[in-house]
Amino acid sequence: MSDPLIPTKPPGKSWREINQERKALKRQRNEEKIIKREKRLALEKEVEVKAQEEAEIEKKNAEISTISIAVPGSIMENAQSAELRTYLAGQIARAACIFCVDEVIVYDDIGDKLDTKKSKLEDTEGLKIARKSCVQLARILQYLECPQYLRKHFFPIHKDLEFAGLLNPLDAPHHLRMSNDFKFREGITMNKKVKPGRGSQVNVGLLQDVSSDKLINPGIRVTVKMLPAVEGSKKLKGKIVSLATPRAETGVYWGYTVRIATNLSQIFTQSPYKDGYDLTIGTSDRGTHIDELPNKGVKYNHALIVFGGLQGIEAALESDEQLKVDDASLLFNHYINVLPNQGSRTIRTEEAVLVALSSLRSKLKAENEPMVFKETGIATSSIFPQEKQDIPDHLGNENNIDLSRFD
Q1: Fewer Cβ within 10 Å of end Cβ, the chain: N or C?
Q2: What is the pLDDT of residues 302-318, one digit of tens each?
Q3: Orientation of helix 132-145 relative to helix 82-98, angle to 10°
Q4: Which residues contact 16 (CB under 8 A, 6 or more apart)?
Q5: What SS3 state is found at 292?
Q6: pTM above 0.85, yes or no
Q7: Contact predicate 102/68, CB 8 Å
Q8: 23 Cα distance to chain centroid
Q9: 349-360 and 82-98 helices cross at what angle (nearest 10)?
């Protein structure tokens, strides 16, 4: 009787042939392992290279020149009624949008010298407790900048927004309707279960949510780059990108961010940009004549324009205990009078914003100016050419839609 542990020789084959077959099979398995390892390494390298490329693109996008404006919250206290306060904030928002401002800073120019009510608001820096007038101005600015289909998610009923429905819409390019087709959209991450390895579902104002590439906590506002639809699939897919990406890739203005500063010094110290503001401009009737600035001679990458309240920037400087300078002009690279020989004794802040941004257009020269928007297929504002075109939607269907209005 043969031992079962000893291999038996198959009939018709010699041990030499059997050993050769075993060696060939072992060699084949080793080759397959090597091929699999090489494929895995190649895939990992491809992912690493792609991540590096995306990081470089994000870094390049972040270097695009920006304009920030700082306005005092006390201007709201000078308005006679709640309706007028709301309308005043709407004027600031309209001016910021018209001149493609990237950041609006609402600062407290009075400080804690007067016993005033405080309020809370979440801005780009997180939850802030600040003067009530500053919070109201910032909240209305945020509300107007937010696309209409997202407002119900981010802005519950609040007394500060009681009359916001009366305001003129910003008519901003990123306020897209459901019928508008554009490669970028603003959205909110939804609280929906997803399969392991899948990204969050994002509501971008369309009939169905978009499957993203990243898993993010629900209730977060994100910018989504819409990916081409896969043939035979009705699911929408997108990629979550930074807020600067739409303007960097297309040149289209993509709204402003809002930040609260509890005093004048925080305007400069809490800048969201890595190296801060390389150009600072203060506006005052005590400044130098704006015509003394050379045309396209003031270069900048991140410019900051600060406006004073009823008593000017000088009063804000006096109320800030952290700043030890006596002359407000020492805080800025340029301290200018945007409208010399004015007919009125005073220029209101909301008027000064329009006058200053209009006058400085011919003076400022961006070092990394965003590209000019030349594409079609997006609902346009007055600064973009308006056309009617047959544009395929995300599902590949042709449609004839008038994209000239979207608010």
Answers
A1: N
A2: 999 999 988 889 888 98
A3: 50
A4: none
A5: helix
A6: no
A7: yes
A8: 62
A9: 10
Position 196: which residue type?
P
* Residue 348 · residue 285 · CB < 8 Å: no
Distance CA 142, CA 129 (A): 16
Which of the residue ranges 369-373, 388-392, 395-399 has the most confident prediction, judged by mean pLDDT? 369-373
State the residue for tokens 């969050």. Answer: 200
The tokens of 193 are what? 């279960």
**Number of Cβ within a 10 Å radius of residue 264:** 26
Phi, psi of 64 (to 5 degrees): -65, 135
With H, G, I as helix, E, B as strand and everything else as coil, classify residue 323: coil
> CA-CA distance, 200 to 21, in Å (whole number)?
51
Q: What is the DSSP letter of 274?
A: T
3-state secondary structure of 74: helix
CB 187 within 8 A of CB 150: yes
Tokens of 270: 């809490």
| Nearest partner of 285 among 351, 375, 380, judged by Cα | 351
Q: CA 308 to CA 236: how far, in whole Å?
A: 47
Q: What are residue 245's phi and psi, to 5 degrees?
A: -65, -45
Q: What is the pLDDT of residues 92-122, one digit of tens each?
A: 999 999 999 999 999 998 876 555 677 777 7
